[in-house]
Amino acid sequence: MLLQAHELTISFGGLTAVDRLSLTVEKGMILGIIGPNGSGKTTFFNLVTGMYAPDSGKVIFNGKNITGLRPHRIAQLGIGRTFQIPAPFSKMTVLQNVMVGTFIHASTMKAAKGKAWEILEMVRLDEKAEQQVVNVTLEDRKRLELARALATEPILLLLDEVMSGLTPAEAKAAIELIQTFRTQGLTMIIVEHVMDIILSLCDRVAVLNYGRKIAEDTPNQIVNNQEVIRAYLGERYSARN
Amino acid sequence: MSVVGERIKANSTALIWQWVFLGLIFLVSLIIPWIVSPLWVRIITEILMWAGLAQSWNIIGGYTGYLSFGHGAFFGMGAYVTGIAMMNLEWPFGVGLLLSGIMAALLAVVIGYPTLRLRGAYFAIATWAFGEMIRQIALILEITGGAFGMQLPAFLNLPFFYYVTLGITGLTYLTTYLLLERSRFGYKLLAIREHEEAAEMVGVDTVVIKMKAFALSAFFPGVFGGIYAYWVTYIHPDSVFGAIITDFMVVMAFLGGIGSLWGPFLGAVVVQLVNRILWLTWGEGTFYLVIIGAAICGVVLFIPNGIVGLLEARIFSPREALSQLRKMVKW
């Protein structure tokens, strides 16, 4: 078991954003998380990466209790994440952005640069490497999010709506990219609204609603789950299938 | 490939010229005390000191994005540490300077620990309050001479202070260049400035890195404070802890261009030259503050990237200047 979230709970004021949420991820698998806006998907990521400390519950990663550790420690232990709204280092070049991520493992500037180029080639951003981030498109910023997260050489990668805002063609390219990560043995948790992406990529899908897990199953079972249809997919979606 | 090759070649030629230029400036700077009048040696020494101070501020304010308004505290701390080391402990000047830098850096750690978790205006206010607190403490302590100030042994040797200042300012810029412009530490600082949460997510220990940057940006002002104390021979809490010290560092860095290596230098040259030329023309007065105030408004409104930003935008080529002007002014 690579990641084990046990009974995670956090509330902000009177609102319980994540409510006794338990999820497990096995090595090599892709877990999809879906749910309406505000159902706690991004908050769950923030709990796993240490951005928030849970009110109760714990997170076990790779056999180690990482609950309450600071984000940079968790990143060093091997959890990478992308932000839903790209959060690049704007006044730096694309290459420099990725280099910052490589510093965890690269001990010299030269090694960092080499590793960063490698990753930029993989996500096909190498031609934009020397450009300032402010001058690149949204698609490239999404790719940069991926590249910077990969630069930390994660064991587990959390992808927060990497495909939102992309055209169908761009999304298709992104799916192919994520599939290559899978073949390289990377474990991933994907938050996404587009069901086709979830269906084509994920081994298992968890559905959140009001901070609670209302279902977890294989993608094909999930789309036929009555509660999921009521809470998230809607009657029309189930009729279409 | 050939395009990349040519770009690298062009870069290296430009780099060689930069080094030649720097070497020339260095040679000229070595003989300055022997070719200009003592008045100008003094003015140039002041400019160098401000250039070093502005760059120190730039480390935390420009590269890291934390606007410190308490930097005068480090300068004053350094002035008093050197004063006390020389007067009370009878230690040599050099030891006093080193101690000044170290004590200022330690003070930065103490101030930074609670304040560096604040951002933006809150950090500015907190550091300003700390700076003011240190000034008040210096006013009531016995070892600082309180409101009477402190008299140091007179050492009237202008070229000596010129060379010491030149050396420390040179060291400030060299440190900035090596540690900030081309090392992992510098990249991490920029990452913190641009997006602190994202920096943490890729493994940057923001707390430690920010603390190191703050200590480094306090070390040099501490040393400059020590030089200043020995140079002017009389220090008082209002002169070395005055708000004007911080204000000048901030203004110079902003005018020149924050977050750049040469911005603070250019800013210091412009501000201090204007300051001194007005002083030479009209005598002692505070009129220069009006001009500097107007200059700050102008910089904030029209050239947020400072002089360096203007140079990079090639605003000084007539064609570019005209097109920029057409964009700004509609007629």
Tell me about this structure.
- The complex is a heterodimer of chains A (241) and B (331).
- Chain A has 241 residues and is α/β, with parallel strands linked by helices.
- Chain A folds into two domains: 3-78 and 154-240, Rossmann fold; 88-153.
- Chain A contains ten helices and ten strands.
- Chain A has a six-stranded mixed sheet with strand order 6-7-8-3-9-10, sandwiched between helices. Chain A has a four-stranded antiparallel sheet with strand order 2-1-4-5, with helices on one face.
- In chain A, a hairpin with a 2-residue loop joins strand 1 and strand 2.
- The longest helix of chain A is centred in the C-terminal third of the chain and has 16 residues, at 168-183.
- Chain A is globular and about 55 Å long.
- Chain B has 331 residues and is mostly helical.
- Helix content of chain B is 79%, strand content 1%.
- In chain B, helix 2 (38-63) runs parallel beside helix 6 (158-181) and helix 2 (38-63) packs antiparallel against helix 9.
- Residues 1-5 of chain B have low confidence and may be disordered.
- The A-B interface holds A 49, 51, 70-72, 75-76, 80-81, 83, 87-92, 96, 99-101, 103-104, 109, 112, 148-149, 151-152 and B 182-184, 187-188, 190-191, 193-195, 197-207, 259.
